[in-house]
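Journal club prep — side note

Before the paper discussion, L.F. wants everyone to see what a predicted structure for a comparable chain looks like in token form. Sequence:
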Amino acid sequence: MNTQKNDINEELERGFTDVLAEKLPKALPTIVDASFEPVIYPAGFNYGLTYGANAYYNPASLSTLNSTLEFDPSGDAGISDQKLSDLYISVLQNSVYAFSSATQKQLSELDNEAESQIASVLRAFENSNFKYSDPLPPGGKIADVFNQLTALYGPITENCDNLPITLSSLRDAISTYIEASGQAYNLHSRAAQATAALKAAIQNAKTPSSKNGGMQTGDDAYYVGFDKLPSANQLIGSLKTDSNAFTVSISGDSFSEEECDVCVESKAKIPIPIGCLLEIQVEHSSVVNISDYTSSETSFSMKITYPGVTALSVLPLSLSSDNKTGWYSVNILEEIKNKTGDLSADGYKLQGGEFSTGELFGKTGRLNYFKTLIVSRTPSVEVTFNKIDVSEFTKYVHTDNNVKIKLFDFIPLGDVDHSYTLNDVDFSESEQSVTMKFGSPEISGSVPLEQQVAYVLGGTPEYVD
């Protein structure tokens, strides 16, 4: 029975999300683009992006924006628990900038020709109280010298004028080395700058701060940065725009004692158990069983309306050219994807066996995320039953009761703390019809702004491919 129920739910859910994917971009083309992917995400989105006297960013909001996507076997997207910044850090920590076999051979030959100059550089480096990295990077100690100095003082210029005067012996040694082997210097400098960017991306993502573009979430707390987020008032204003609404229609008939046929818009009818149709829980206790009031002549129509449909851009803050701010680098990720395993290419590459490019990149890759999140106010629901036992049904379902409803076991509306209100009940005993209008109650001041949520419809994926 459970297997059948799950299969039915999946079929209905697919029909429902297919309608969203097909019709929402056409209904609201200025808000939702054609690449929109619907999701079922009961947790919702905390639309109070900033709150309180200090206007701190809401960590719950940022956490949702920082979510990666997961994909089921058929390729449908869902919002995962994996955080993009955490996965990104792990990927970069398992990557390195490496030369191709040919470039490395060329550099080794050049360094061999400048052996005495390199020895002088290493001696001056050690005498200046620097310590070599463990393990050493590709290219050995001379590469490590360039990496460390570049990370501290920026790319080393040909006359070394960006190194402090206190390192005069080291400056002189490097200048002599550059004069003797300018081509080797260019290669070491390129690798050092690439390595510095890699390390900065990791560091800025691991320890966000006011200096590197982190978003302040508390007195001493910061979250990884995102670019061009709206203010809380802008987002709330957009959610209150009633003209940006979208409605999905569902109908059903052919009721028996155990099931009925359900159709989402123009999709094919699907027989479902009546118990999966509409669950109405009254006053957080008793559950109204629809099948107690239906007959073979019963039919229903339902409209689910999403008011205030709003697009929210999700832009991880890009790593700046000087590596001081931001954390996300498309260039680094693209090089990892394209150059890992290619011994003929210079660039960033995965090392070790923790990740593979196949799992990280492409249409179902783990690094994908929503670059635009589509949200709305909590949807309203209008349900009309025809040929139903009106007198008995309305004894339990009336406007004096607060209710929690769930549609088809996959569209949850309302929760334990914030249930739906049955706003209106129209019925006609002569026509044997009942129309119920459900809506989310007005949020009172007792619910803090940072805890109030919008409904998540889906988003536009950013595929790292």
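L.F.'s comment for the group: Residues 1-5, 414-418 have pLDDT under 50 and may be disordered. Keep this in mind when we get to the figures.
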